[in-house]
Amino acid sequence: MLSLKTDVASLAFYGLLLLPLLYVLRKYTTSSPSQPSATENSNELTGSKEEEKPKTIMSAANTSLQPPKDDEFTPERLKDYDGSQPGKPIYVAIKGTIFDVTAKVEMYGPGKSYNIFAGKDGSRGLGMSSLKPEDAVPDYSTLDENDMKVLDDWHSFFSKRYNIVGRVVDPNLSEAVRNMNNLQLKS
C-alpha cells in the first residue's frame, strides 16, 4: 500500500511539472478563434482596446508623389529601363502611362516575379493577371469587361504609389488603343 501512495505522489509531482509544457504546446500548436492571440494578450495587459490590424502585402498609397511628367518614350527607349542596367531606374507602363517602380526592385528587378512588365507596356498581361511573356503587350483592346476592370484597378493602384515619369508613344499601336490611352491621360 505504501508503494501505491508513493507512485501516486510521484505521478502527481511529474504531472504538475508537465502542465506548463502542455499549456505552451497547446497554445502555439492550435489556432482556434476562442484563444486570444499574442497581440490580444498584450493588449489585455496594457489595457489597450486596439485590435490588431490586418496584414496586407499591398503597400500604402504614397503621399509624397511628384507631379506627373509628360515625357515621351518610344517602346525602344522604354526597354532601357527594364532593370538590367545597375543604377538606371526601372519603369513599368500601364495603358501608356509610365511609372517609376525603382523603389520596388525586389519585385520588378531582373529575375523577380514582375520583371516581365519592366521596361515595357504590358497592359494586356496585367489585365489578364498573366505572367506569360506573350501576354505582356500594350494592346489591351481585346480584354473583356472583367479584365478591363482589373487593368483599370492596376492603373489606379500604380497612380497612387509610383511617380509618373512619362507616356509611351508608339505609332505601331492600333488607333483604338492609342485613343483609349489618350482618354486615360485626360482622366
UniProtKB/TrEMBL annotation:
Residues 68-82 have a biased composition (Basic and acidic residues). It comes from the Eukaryota. Belongs to the cytochrome b5 family. MAPR subfamily. InterPro entries: Cyt_B5-like_heme/steroid-bd, Cyt_B5-like_heme/steroid_sf, MAPR/NEUFC/NENF-like. Residues 31-82 are annotated as: Disordered. PANTHER family: BINDING PROTEIN, PUTATIVE (AFU_ORTHOLOGUE AFUA_4G06240)-RELATED, MEMBRANE-ASSOCIATED PROGESTERONE RECEPTOR COMPONENT-RELATED. This is Cytochrome b5. GO terms for molecular function: heme binding.
